[in-house]
Every structure is written in C-alpha cells, then in structure tokens.
From TrEMBL:
Isomerase as UniProt keyword: no
Pfam family, one: YceD
Protein name in the entry: Large ribosomal RNA subunit accumulation protein YceD
Lineage: Bacteria, Pseudomonadati, Pseudomonadota, Betaproteobacteria, Rhodocyclales
Provenance organism: Zoogloea oleivorans
Function: Plays a role in synthesis, processing and/or stability of 23S rRNA.
Biological processes per GO annotation: ribosome biogenesis
C-alpha cells in the first residue's frame, strides 16, 4: 500500500463544506511516536469544513485513538484514550484575527498555507493534548532492587522518634 498523501487545501475543504475522515497507524505519526512507550494502534481523525454566514472558514477537528504512554509512577504501560475536539478558524497567512474572535476560547485560529499537511496538524493537536505526567489512577511505584540502601527521611524520622 502506498503512503496516502494528506496534504490538501484546507480552505477549499471549508468552502465546500467537505469532510476528510481517515484512520492511520500510530507509527505514521513520527513526532508523536517519540512521546509514546509503544507505537501501536491507530488514530482516527475527521476534518469537517464549514463556511459560516459571514464567509468565515472553519474546520471542526476530531481525533480519537488509544495511545500507549508510560506511567510516570509505576513505569508500566498505560493506555491513554486520546479524544481531541477542536474548532479551527482558518486565516490566510498574514491575515489578522477578527476582533470578535479574540476572546472566543472555543475557537483556535489557524493560519493556513495554500496546502496543509493534515497529518502534521493531527500530530500537533495530539501532542498538545498529551498529559504532561501520565499516571494510572491507582498504581504503586516499582520496588527497586537495593532500595534498602537508600535511607528515606521518614525512616530517619521514625528512628529519631523511637529514641526519644
Ligand atoms: Zn502506573
């Protein structure tokens, strides 16, 4: 299977109210893979274009997929269900953000070139959404060999108390 190109004219998609819906292997997202414990599974994304009554161009973006991160507490694998939803206002390069959109938190402005790499955009959005310190809800730190050699401050405190 040849590598499908996801470089498209995003503004044209929005003008036509078009939609792109694809599922790609996680390993095709090279920058994201660097943040994962294992590059397994797939990511599904959808771009839904929209032109509003004022002629402004939007794309509603949805990304879903189970990503395997490393828990920072027990250091084991943890599956993080990625679920990104974003509404992007498309601006031509150099175009100012309309004033009434400045305070609209629900919309992110995106300056688009004539051609946009959808995969790169998906990757950017997922990277932004990744938890900074992924952790299972309930887990224990690994028991390291030789942990007895390290004297924890609490153990010292208990010893001191015992002497009093
Ligand atoms: Zn854990």
């Amino acid at each position: 299977m040849s590598q499908e190109s996801f470089v498209i004219d995003l503004q044209a998609l929005a003008k036509d109210g078009g939609r792109v819906h694809r599922t790609v292997p996680v390993e095709s997202l090279g920058r994201l893979v660097e943040s994962l414990l294992e590059p397994v599974g797939t990511v599904t994304f959808e771009f839904q274009g929209e032109r509003d009554d004022e002629g402004k161009l939007y794309v509603d973006l949805q990304i879903q997929g189970d990503l395997v991160l490393q828990c920072q507490r027990c250091l084991e694998a943890m599956v993080w269900p990625c679920n990104v939803q974003n509404r992007l206002l498309l601006l031509r390069s150099g175009e100012e953000l309309p004033e009434n959109e400045l305070e609209n938190d629900a919309v992110d402005a995106l300056e688009v070139e004539p051609l946009t790499d959808l995969l790169a955009l998906v990757e950017d959005e997922v990277l932004l959404a990744l938890p900074l310190v992924p952790r299972h809800e309930n887990c224990e730190p690994p028991v390291k060999a030789g942990v007895d050699d390290e004297i924890s401050p609490f153990a010292v405190l208990r010893q001191l108390r015992g002497k009093v």
